[in-house]
Amino acid sequence: MPNVIVVGTQWGDEGKGKVVDVLSRHADAVVRFQGGNNAGHTLVVDGEQLVLHLLPSGILRDNCTCVVGNGVVVDPRVMLDEIRELEGRGRTITPRQLVVSAQAHIIMPYHLALDRLREEAKGAKRIGTTCRGIGPTYEDKVARRGVVICDLLDADRLRSKLEAIVPEKNRMLVDWYGDEPLDVEKMVADYIELGEVLAPFVSDSVGLLHSIQRRAGSILFEGAQGTFLDVDHGTYPFVTSSNTVAGAACAGSGVGPTAIDEVVGIAKAYTTRVGAGAFPTEDLGELGERLRRVGSEFGATTGRPRRCGWFDVPLVRQAARINGLTRIAMTKLDVLSGLASIPVCVAYEGHVDGFPASLDAVTPVYEELPGWSEDISKCRQVSELPADCLRYVAHLEELIGVPVELVSVGPGREDTIVRGDLFTR
Ligand code: IMP
To answer: Of 144, 153, 220, 233, which is most buried, counting CB atoms within 10 Å of its CB?
Structure first.
């Protein structure tokens, strides 16, 4: 299998975890390259559900090493909880299976506190972050005052860093937000202890990925969130604090762009979004409610109900350009079964060419496509899909200009229809 980047083409929750799990069958490594435990990737294997927030979705495969790359922000407690949860299910996670970059930045207690306090202070103007400390951690990374994983392996070094950082954070926590101050010594003790447990997994992830390349192995890059949550290309400021697009896979893992063979975009057959921000095709009526109910559209990380709406072609077409998509995997097509007709946004009024700088005030132009009444969740071949269902996929494919090569009709590994060669190689 070639080296493949998988990214979300909408606002996250497109079902990337399942597609990465399907593709990881032939991969030597699965790499997370950005974001942190704001993500929630749900896998269903043999009827058993597993939600991963930080560990790559290949962790259930014995054939591949999972890499948490330098571009990820790591909450060590969450990482240990996920390792323990897997061990509780009878899977021992060894340092051969999990490699964490020594350069990944750490989500510290003051990042968690500030994320929550800032959101509370914003009131109605809040972004709706996951309150996992993601934004404040990336801020400190860019401001060159972050704590990286290798700092957790050396108490003197960690103490000296925190002595420089924490007084300023405490001023903000206490004087500005009226919260409790944090204690440096307690933090050093807690995080050195966490570092000791994580130490066996921490190593030279760049070296590992290059050795896989040298022996012509294949690497799967697992994006988190979606293209329109990207800090540069998304609906700013209602975005996450990292680059979520395919270009970030290289910087966030230390693999050069010339090594990338394919970029797969995951597109849900309709659209959802959690948190605030523009959503041109949002359906606030009964049909939107139906999508939420039938699609179980509740956040895997926060449990929040997701906002639901219709497929937005200009959005996904823009994602195809930004990410350089070579193929699309379309998920949750089964959720649309039973609708008499299905609205699809084919353009934004007044925007014939190009993509608007802001989606705040755009008016979608809809086409109504015929629906299908059959339950498609047991279909395993393209030929088993009802004609109107096939027409729906083919029409979107034509409008986006990228082939749809995998269709997902249910949460399990087996609930998948493969149309292209990438997924069978
Ligand atoms: P943050 O990433 O926690 O800072 O949240 C910023 C925005 O991104 C909020 O609207 C979140 O709901 C959204 N977000 C973050 N991670 C995910 C995800 O994995 N799926 C969907 N939305 C997400």
So the answer is: 220
pLDDT digits (tens, 9 = 90+) for 236-294: 999 999 999 999 999 999 999 999 999 999 999 999 999 999 999 999 999 999 999 99
Q: Using the structure block, give the residue that is written with the tokens 């109605």.
A: 124
Structure tokens at 332: 């949750």
The pair of three-digit structure tokens given for residue 5, joined into one six-digit string: 């980047």
- Report helix, strand and coil shares of the chain as percent, to nearest 5: 40, 20, 40
Distances from the Cα of 353 to the Cα of 347, 348, 365, 368, angstroms: 10, 10, 14, 22
Closest C-alpha among 409, 346, 345, 333 to residue 378: 409
CA-wise closest residue to 273 among 287, 265, 284 = 284
Cα angle, residue 383 at apex, residues 45 and 47 outer, rounded to 5°: 10
13: annotated active-site residue: yes
- Spot the catalytic one: 13, 28, 230, 312: 13
pLDDT one-digit tens code per residue, 337-356: 999 999 999 999 999 878 99
Tell me the backbone φ, ψ of residue 43, rounded to 5 degrees: -120, 140
Q: Find, among 4, 81, 9, the residue nearest to 262 by Cα.
A: 4
* Residues paired with residue 312 on neighbouring β-strands, in sequence order: 345
Question: What's the sign of the alpha-carbon dihedral 326, 212, 79, 119?
Answer: negative
- Is the CB of 40 inside a 6 Å radius of any atom of ligand 1? yes
**What is the spatial distance between Cα 361 and Cα 87, in angstroms, rounded to a whole number?**
49
Rounded to 5 degrees, φ, ψ at 15 are: 100, 30
Residue reference for tokens 């559209």: 297
pTM: 0.95
Give the pair of three-digit tokens for residue 346.
């084919």
Query: Active site includes 41?
Result: yes
